[in-house]
Each structure stands twice: as C-alpha cells, then as structure tokens.
Amino acid sequence: MNGCAPGAGDRGAVCVRETRALPAAPAPHDAVGRLRAAVDALWSNAAPPAAPSGIIRIEVPITQRVDAVEWLHAQTTLPRCFFSARAPLPDAPALAGNGNGNGSVHRQQPVSVAGVGSAVFFRGTEPFSLADWRAIKRFLPRDCPLVRAYGAIRFDATSDASVEWEDYGSFYFVVPQVEFNELEESSVLATTIAWDDSLSWTWHNAVEELQSTLRKISPCSSVQANKASLQTAIVSLNHVPTKASWDLAVTKALHMIKGRQRELVKVVLARCSRYITDTCIDPVELLACLKAEGQNAYQFCIQPPGAPAFVGNSPEQLFHRKYLNISSEALAGTRARGKTRADDFQIGQDLLLSSKEDIEFTIVRDSIKNKLEMICDEVVVHPSKALRKLPRVQHLSAQLAARIRNEDDEFEILNTLHPSPAVCGLPTEEARQFIRDCEIFDRGMYAGPVGWLGGAECEFAVGIRSALLGKGHSTLVYAGAGIVEGTNPSFEWDELDLKASQFAKLLRYQERPIRYQEAENLGTVI
After folding, report:
1. Residue range 415-428: mean pLDDT, rounded
2. 3-class DSSP state of 520
3. Domain assignment of residue 45, yes or no
C-alpha cells in the first residue's frame, strides 16, 4: 500500500492507532512463534475492526540483547531497512524544559532498528512536499513512539533520476511489517498491520500479507556476518569525473567564487566511483563492517523491492526532533587521522588553524544557524568550533540546539535544512545549479536526508559516506568535497579518496593489478 496517493495527506489520522505488548520471550525464536500465533488469532478468531483505517503494532520483548544486523542478515524479504542511532556527543547544547513532552513515561530508545516487508510505504516522483509529509504522519501515532517510517529523500528531486535510482522515486519511506529493535540490554521483535479502505488496502489484505511475511522470518542468522572484511576482490575501478575533469570543474567553481559578481561562495562537488568485484557484495555484510568501526556515526540501509541497496556510515546529523526540541550540527573540513598520538594531535591543530577550512566550516555553521532562526524561537550554538575525530578522518564541528513553535514545523525544518552548505554550497540555488551543470552522474539519495519519522520524534542523518549496491558485481561509492576560495583541486581529490577509504579498505585487491579506468561516464545501469 502506497500511503502517498493523491489527497491522502488531507484525510487526517487513521482511525485505529495502538500498540499491543505480548509477554516477554527468552530468545528470537520464541518471539517469532508468539507473533505468528497472535497474527493468526487476528485472522481466525476476531472480527475485523469496523474502522476503515488503522495501524496496530504488536511487539514481543526479548530478554536478551541480539544484534539487529545479525537478525537482518538472516532475512530474505524485501523491502528492508536499517538505521542505527549515533552515540550521544559530549558537550551538546541543551535547552531548558522538556520541549512539551508533557511528562510522558520514559521509554528505552532502540540502539539499532532492522525491518523487512512493508506495512505501508510512501513513494512519490515529485519533490517531497507538505502533503507527502502529512500522508506519512497520519500513520504515525504520537502515543506509539516506535511506529516509525524509515527512508530517504533525493539530494535534488528536480533532477532526472537515472536507472539505478528510479525505484526510490523522489523519496521512499517504509513502515516495516516485521521489525527488530536492538536495545541496550534487551531486544524487541514487532510486527505492524496497516490498512486504509480508501487506498484499496483492507484489513484482510494487510493481515494476509503479514502472515505470508511472518512465515519467511528466520529467528536469527546461524552464520554471522563478517565484520572485518568482505570476501571479494576488485576487478576494475572507474571514477566519474576523471581527475582531469575534476580539476576543470574545481577551477571553474573557483573562478566564479573569486569573480567580481561572486556568484558562488561555496559549492560541494562529488565523485561517483564504480567498483566491479569478482563476487556480489551482500549489503548487510557491508553494513556489518561499517557498523564495526562506526560508533560515532549513523549506519543505514534502505532497499525497496527489486532495487539496489543504499548503504552508508554517515557522521553528520541533519537534525533530530523530540517534541519541540531540535538538535543539529555543522560538519566541514577534513583531515586524515595521524599514525601516532602526536601526529594525530598535530594534524588536528593544523585543521583547527587552517584559514581555508575555517572559511568552509563557518559558511556551514552560520547558514544552519540562520535557517534555524527563521523557524525557531531560540537557537544555541555550543561548541562553536571543535574537532570531531572518527576512525579514519577528523572534521571541524559545531552543535546547535533550538526549539520550534509547533510540532507541525517539523516539515519546515526538514525542507529548510536540506540541502545544507556541507553537501551543496552557498547560495543554495546557485550551488545546486552549478552541480546540475557540472556533475554527469545522478547523486540519487547520496547527500540527501536519510532517517526516520515518528509521531513525536524524528531523526535524519545526511546521506554521505554512502554506496549503492546492485544485484550484480557493481558497487557505486560516493564522496564529495567543498570548494571555497583557497581550494587546491588535487588536495580535494585526495580528500575524496580519504572519504571513500572506509569502503575501499573492505575490498581486497587481487594479486594481479586491477584494471583501473577513469571513465568520462559510467553509464546508468548498476
């Protein structure tokens, strides 16, 4: 059921909205059995709800903590999704009060969520709109906080989608039929039933399809996902643009940045690298490898039916909302980590003191602050500039906190903050047009918002440090670099390699030299 049918956003919330908890189970196997029995009882023993629409979540607590990636690795059903929360950052600013939480009971937040199947999905070919947001929110009850829609939005929905991205549309979100929540000390296995007669999807349709999905659910993988490397080797590697074309594009951007008209202040240019490997890469195994080193990042995987998988390990938060409270961050400037503690410290100090990196970072931080101030009552920035150290790279960062006036301003926050100068440039429209003119590949969901929407809360990362894995032996890896006054094209090309290295290091090179090409155009089929 596609919940984004014409006019769906004007119909108001679905009629039935509830969460039902079953007794706790000792292990995933027992939880699967209890869910199957509960859904079978809905089908055979109970009269269908009289309401024409609704969403019901049935969940079974599991007394042990089980890795959500391992659970997802055992499943074969599509669509599938995964989102892992980032560890809280130190020294993040906070605003007084609970942001209109109304003293609600504290509920343990999932560390990671994996889901398969579609209770309801939301896909459109036009740019993501307020009507689309309302169509999603009508299925997300405020008092059922774990009923969430996971997905992503295109970086530029006004540009044409290439073949590899066409199944995603301009946006794609899904409320999973079966969902595994990994908590700090335990787990939850849940299933969701959604129906809406006005969308030609009845209660009986929903329960029957859910029964089919539950029959395919495996409790957990007997073969653990490899978290160290992928058992594959690179056969060939192509970059779009080539190094020569990159230099030309950066030089053109610098000419506009330094020109009398100052048409641009900053623009972020990207590269798409196609890796051909000797075996197919399992998206969940790649996800497991990224998660092993991504404690300070968001791991995600989105895969619609029949589509390639969009997988990433993003360090950058677009924003998080809980009730009226908003948090966001600015992230810009990149250096490698040092081989020794002293070397790492010196590299970090060079980054902090670099005038070029300070220009780029200040543009990003001030732009986000200004955008928040247009919508929010108060905005706090602290720290205003600090180092964020990741396993392979380090960045300049700033944390921002704000408070919106109304929870319905959530869409405005999403629509205003994306795209940020960290992935597009400044001024936004001039930078976006420069990207359209210069880049000859489709970014798709790369650098777009990726995350989830809930009734009283939502969280989005920026879809960077990401890759698109096709059904065959082809993987597209994306990376970008900010161009400001003082940029050196060759240094930025090296930065692209650094940002893509978390993917490249997982691929094993054959003993013979790989066939390396710098192609003008990779084509579109993945």
Report:
1. 95
2. coil
3. yes
